[in-house]
Amino acid sequence: MAPLTKYGLLLAAASLPFAAADGQYRSRPDLSPPLLNITVPVQDANGSEYVFIAPYSDYIQQSGAYIYRKNGDLIWSGIGYYAGFVANFHPTTYHNETVLQAFQGTMDTLHGEGFGQYVLLNQSYEHVATAKTGNHRIPSIHEFNVIDGETALVEIYLPTVTNLSAYGGNSSQQWIGNGLFQEFNIETGELIFEWNSLDHVDPADSLIKLNSSSVESGLNSIDTWDYIHLNSVDKDPEGNYLLSSRHFSTIFKINGTDGSIIWQLGGNHSTFAYNFTFGFQHDARWRDQTATTETISFFDNSADGTITFNNVSRALFVELNHLDNTATIRRKATAPYAIQADSQGNVQALPNGKLFVNWGQAGAFTEFSADDRVIYHAWIEDGVSYRGFLSNWTGTPYEVPAIAAYVEARNTTRLYVSWNGDTETKGWKFYQTADKKNRTQFLGEVARSSFETSLVWKGEGEASEVRYYAEAVDAADRVLGRSEAVRATEFIRIRDRV
Description:
This is Arylsulfotransferase. This protein has no helices and 33 strands. The protein is mainly β. It has 2 domains: 382 residues, 6 Propeller (Neuraminidase), CATH 2.120.10.30; 89 residues, Immunoglobulins (Immunoglobulin-like, Sandwich), CATH 2.60.40.
């Protein structure tokens, strides 16, 4: 992540075909999810594969964690579940259970760092765990990588007082933004490993020099020199770590015993020779390891707004050959619409060789086929997401469905129902009940096609006596949930959603 003054949205997308959710719901008027602009749709947009993003910007009313169908329809709004600045939101596995993870806290917009905590929610959106790091460290936004369902890798940004004279600093410049990472047990908090960048690398190798801007002055704990900017950590079966440094434009392999650097790709001291360029990368992951080769993937930003390596961002798979110390691109998925993401981004490997790439600061995401054709693409209207993911998910909310009833005209009532986070409802059954006579009348059933479902009921009944409720049913007609019973209220006619 990098400092964001303007969010770098590719406004040319506004002229592209628009397909998005309405963004406002009668049954949940408190929710205002960001819109998605789908420019390359998929046939099975209502399938069980969902988009997980955490959009934010000054222009979004409710920044936070969201789950969408591929057609842009809302599945779940995380407003009220995660607080503050939210990032790195997606499903993971903890104690053999599929859960949601997300960072919540504050964001240092000057450096693109954060201070907060990682919170896990179960499939009913209930709290499972709040991960706490060791050594009084506060995790940053970039990484929370669950290993074997038990431990977590996190990146830490630590303002540190040190002598910066070797890097051109004067006596008043003493603050450096140190980069650390930890592995710890999520349940117990036991610290397993901690790596401190200042113990292993030379800040002089940073592409972002001291005093390169006012926020890199090192004059105080706010304007620290963010010299290394770690943004992802992975672990292999041997216990070693793969570490991405944005400001070194380098990917490191770290010895999991003593913290020494085993090899590095990119930057000023690359172990490998290669005939391509990359830089300011994110999300380095191991994909394959043998006795003589290692294959890694990463999101190649290729620019930071000042320095440009390539004019377009891409997802790269690179093979590292330890026999001749060469690095070779084995796969390249180039951004559509000539997207240049100056910060953020990630690459997700999907089944059948597909890729899902979130273009970070560009505010977009793309699904690629196994032969790297664009098969799905969307823009986040007026926002960006640090990372984005595509995943199956089963949501069974602990809260009851929400219903609203409005008198539209004499003997005509419109009913609206929704269930934030539910993925299993296939249809809604609507009912009317009278308090005094204690009678229940079935009004009708409507198949679910989006976040909110409505029914127009034409019939007699005094608003003071009649209440309405709805039941969610699955494909086998089993009742999954029931709303509260509410009275109908009058409302000013407004254009109904299509």
